[in-house]
C-alpha cells in the first residue's frame, strides 16, 4: 500500500476509533497509529509537530470546552476540560501535515477554505456519532479557527516538496 494512502487510512481509522470508542480505545488506537507513523513515515523531527499539536489541541479545544462549546454526556470527570479521545485527534491530524495533506499547503486560499469547511464538518460529524451537544456558536468559531490554522500551515509548509514529488524524482 502506498505510504500516502496508508497515512490517510490510518488517520480515518484513528478518528473513528476515538469518536466511537471513547478515551481508552481512542488513545490505544491513536497511540499505535502514531507509533507506526513515527517509525515508518515520519520525517526527521516530525515528532515536534505532533507534540505541538498536542499542546494546540489542549489550548483550542480545552478553551472552547471551558467556554461551554461542548456538552458531554455523561459529564466529564477529572481535571481536563475535554475527553482524552477528543484531545488525541490533534496529534492524529498532525500525522497528515507532511504526507497526505502536503499538496494542500501549496495553495493558501484552498487550504484556508478546506480548514473553514473541513474543521467544522469533522466536529459536527464527531458530535453526532459521540452524542455531544455543541453550542450554537461553536461551528462558526471552529470555521474561523481552522481557516486560520490551515492558512498558517500553508504559509509555513507550502514551499516544501510533496512526498509524491520525492517518490517520482528518486
From TrEMBL:
UniProt cross-references to Pfam families, sorted A to Z: DUF2878
Family annotation (InterPro entries): DUF2878
Keywords per UniProt: Membrane, Transmembrane, Transmembrane helix
Organism from which the protein derives: Modicisalibacter ilicicola DSM 19980
Transmembrane segments: 13-42, 49-72, 84-105, 110-130, 136-157
This protein's name: DUF2878 domain-containing protein
Keyword hit for Transmembrane: yes
Amino acid at each position: 500500500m502506498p505510504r500516502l494512502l496508508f497515512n490517510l487510512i490510518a488517520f480515518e481509522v484513528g478518528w473513528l476509533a476515538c469518536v466511537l470508542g471513547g478515551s481508552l480505545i481512542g488513545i490505544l488506537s491513536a497511540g499505535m497509529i502514531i507509533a507506526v507513523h513515527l517509525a515508518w513515515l515520519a520525517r526527521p523531527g516530525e515528532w515536534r509537530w505532533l507534540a505541538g499539536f498536542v499542546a494546540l489541541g489542549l489550548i483550542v479545544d480545552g478553551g472552547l470546552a471551558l467556554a461551554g462549546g461542548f456538552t458531554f454526556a455523561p459529564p466529564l470527570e477529572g481535571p481536563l476540560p475535554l475527553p482524552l479521545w477528543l484531545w488525541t485527534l490533534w496529534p492524529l491530524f498532525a500525522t497528515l501535515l507532511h504526507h497526505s495533506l502536503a499538496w494542500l499547503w501549496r495553495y493558501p486560499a484552498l487550504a484556508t477554505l478546506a480548514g473553514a469547511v473541513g474543521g467544522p464538518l469533522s466536529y459536527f460529524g464527531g458530535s453526532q456519532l459521540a452524542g455531544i451537544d455543541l453550542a450554537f456558536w461553536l461551528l462558526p468559531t471552529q470555521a474561523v479557527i481552522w481557516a486560520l490554522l490551515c492558512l498558517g500551515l500553508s504559509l509555513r509548509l507550502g514551499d516544501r516538496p510533496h512526498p509524491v514529488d520525492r517518490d517520482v524524482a528518486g
